[in-house]
């Protein structure tokens, strides 16, 4: 099968979830024997030679200008003649769907962000002010011209889309690279007799990194001084988290690191923390629609997961078996949850179960096999 994968707003290789997703899916499909072409913003770094990478990024690196790359993507499709075109959804995208029509290939729309508007959406308000609601009309066009929609949550897809056209599929982790014995340089110094709690990801308000900093402060006030926080990544909330951690030697900020270094970093930690705060992101009122990459990579690395008891996370992490889920999502509740993992034996037991679940259910290999099978059924 010849695949054209259009993700012109993503940087590959990169450190953010979207970048990791695009690279993993492309390489995973190639590993299954498919000929894979990817239109994306190409950066320096190691990429799988089995994949054909085409440097077609958005103008000025602005995803809102994706449609301006329609001619380049169409020309690529005419040269490649794909059996299927996969496009990573964006409200201002559609260049992959247009290319699929030009070469009469089925189109798959990969939806990782809401197509529907949440209550109180400012974007929806602006759209209504424009009277003809151009953004909604264009989203509707994209949905109507997709033969298959792949998403981690049906809640972010319009209700009138037939369930038969939707494949609900989780993201994953590279369970070959991520594991308890992954080796390599780590971006902080391990100290004896500490319990290092790692947060990895973008520093945005709803990712809750500052709650981990505050939870460590609470634990130290309770004389639980073995606990340390290691925060890997960058983003707009990092300055606030650094201010909250001012003067604390028990909190380490590494900054963003290349994704290829992440397996060794997670293998060196003791607990994986995902302190999501859904109250900080109104779109999550639709559903916790993320397929949380950090959680799958924690699990693959044999780390017990500590996260809030959001219904969707309950389905991904078995409470008391693969991790500890806490209610409500506050620094005090997070501190209480971390305190239950002061015993090494329990951490190892939960981490081993988490690893087993990740290999079985949350590997990119599993994801790509399901995606490939669905596309082959579509083509047939």
Keywords:
seven-stranded parallel beta sheet, 13 strands, six-stranded parallel beta sheet, 2 domains, Rossmann fold, 18% strand, alpha/beta, 380 residues
Structure characterization notes:
The protein has 380 residues and is α/β, with parallel strands linked by helices. It is 36% helix and 18% strand. It folds into two domains: 2-172 and 363-379, Rossmann fold, CATH 3.40.50.2000; 195-361, Rossmann fold. A seven-stranded parallel beta sheet has the order 3-2-1-4-5-6-7, with helices on both faces. The protein has a six-stranded parallel beta sheet with strand order 10-9-8-11-12-13, with helices on both faces. Helix 1 packs across helix 13 (364-379), helix 6 packs parallel to helix 7 and helix 6 packs across helix 11 (331-339). The longest helix has 18 residues, at 344-361.
């Amino acid at each position: 099968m010849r695949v054209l994968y259009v993700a012109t707003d993503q940087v590959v290789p990169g450190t953010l979830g979207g970048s990791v997703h695009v690279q993993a899916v492309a390489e995973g499909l190639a590993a299954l024997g498919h000929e894979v072409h990817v239109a994306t913003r190409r950066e320096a770094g190691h990429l799988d030679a089995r994949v054909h990478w085409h440097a077609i990024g958005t103008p000025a690196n602005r995803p809102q200008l994706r449609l301006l790359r329609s001619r380049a993507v169409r020309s690529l499709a005419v040269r490649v003649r794909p059996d299927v075109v996969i496009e990573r959804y964006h409200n201002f995208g559609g260049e992959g769907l247009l290319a699929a029509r030009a070469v009469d290939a089925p189109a798959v729309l990969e939806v990782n962000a809401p197509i529907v508007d949440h209550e109180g959406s400012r974007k929806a308000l602006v759209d209504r002010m424009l009277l003809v609601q151009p953004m909604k009309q264009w989203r509707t066009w994209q949905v109507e011209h997709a033969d298959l929609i792949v998403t981690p949550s049906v809640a972010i897809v319009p209700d009138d889309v037939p369930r038969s056209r939707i494949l609900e599929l989780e993201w994953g982790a590279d369970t070959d690279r991520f594991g308890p014995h992954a080796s390599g340089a780590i971006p902080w110094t391990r100290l004896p007799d500490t319990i290092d709690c790692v947060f990895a990801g973008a520093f945005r308000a709803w990712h809750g990194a500052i709650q981990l900093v505050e939870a460590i402060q609470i634990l130290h006030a309770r004389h639980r001084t073995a606990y340390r926080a290691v925060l890997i990544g960058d983003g707009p909330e990092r300055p606030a988290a650094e201010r909250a951690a001012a003067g604390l030697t028990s909190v380490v900020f590494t900054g963003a690191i290349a994704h290829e270094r992440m397996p060794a970093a997670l293998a060196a930690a003791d607990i994986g923390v995902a302190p999501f705060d859904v109250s900080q992101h109104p779109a999550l009122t639709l559903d916790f629609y993320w397929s949380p990459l950090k959680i799958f990579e924690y699990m693959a690395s044999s780390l017990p997961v500590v996260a809030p008891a959001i219904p969707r996370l309950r389905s991904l992490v078995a409470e008391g078996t693969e991790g500890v889920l806490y209610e409500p999502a506050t620094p005090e509740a997070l501190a209480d949850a971390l305190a239950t993992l002061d015993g090494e034996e329990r951490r190892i037991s939960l981490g081993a179960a988490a690893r087993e679940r990740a290999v079985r259910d949350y590997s990119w290999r599993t994801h790509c096999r399901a995606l490939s099978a669905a596309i082959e059924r579509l083509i047939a």
